[in-house]
Amino acid sequence: MKRRDFARRPGCSVEATLDLIDGKWKGVILYHLQSGTQRFGELRRRMPGITQRMLTKQLRALEEDTLVIRKVYAEVPPRVEYCLSELGESLKPVIDILKAWGESHQQRLSCAPPPVVAKKPKRAA
């Protein structure tokens, strides 16, 4: 995935960081890899809402951006493991802060069920 040039623009460091972890799944993948090396199937089980194709695509993008290391073992069947790179490890505090913020604001986010509103009875004419 080709990265945009953020040099010499206001807020460029924020844009560059968000560009690396953009989308619905990259941050979630990075969060799950914080607990250690995992195989593709393990990641897929931890994220039931992601398709196999999307997980593959996102892992490839994270690997291309050197946030994730992919290790292939010469076995039959082939075994592939993913872990955070040193650069990926440096994002741990960012991911942890995002998680904490989400937990503290969960009531306002779409994760929470909508409030129940009582209906007023109709008046007879």
Folded structure, characterized:
It is a single chain. This protein is of the alpha+beta class and 125 residues long. It contains six helices and three strands. It has helices at 12-20, 26-33, 40-46, 52-64, 86-89, 92-104, and strands spanning 38-39, 68-73, 79-84. The protein has a three-stranded antiparallel sheet with strand order 1-3-2. The model has no long low-confidence stretch (mean pLDDT 84).
Characteristic terms for this protein:
3 strands, 125 residues
Structural class label: alpha+beta
Query: Could you tell me the radius of gyration in angstroms?
Result: 20 Å
**Physical arrangement of strands within the biggest beta sheet:** 1-3-2
How would you sum up the global shape?
Answer: extended
End-to-end span in angstroms? 66 Å
- Bin the helical content: 40-55%
Number of helices: 6
Largest sheet: 3 strands, antiparallel
% residues in beta strands: 5-15%
- Low-confidence region ranges: none
Number of strands: 3
Q: What is the mean pLDDT?
A: 84
Order of helices and strands: HHEHHEEHH
List the helices and strands and how they pair.
Blueprint: H1 12-20, H2 26-33, E1 38-39, H3 40-46, H4 52-64, E2 68-73, E3 79-84, H5 86-89, H6 92-104
Provide a short characterization of the protein structure.
With 125 residues, this protein is an alpha+beta fold.
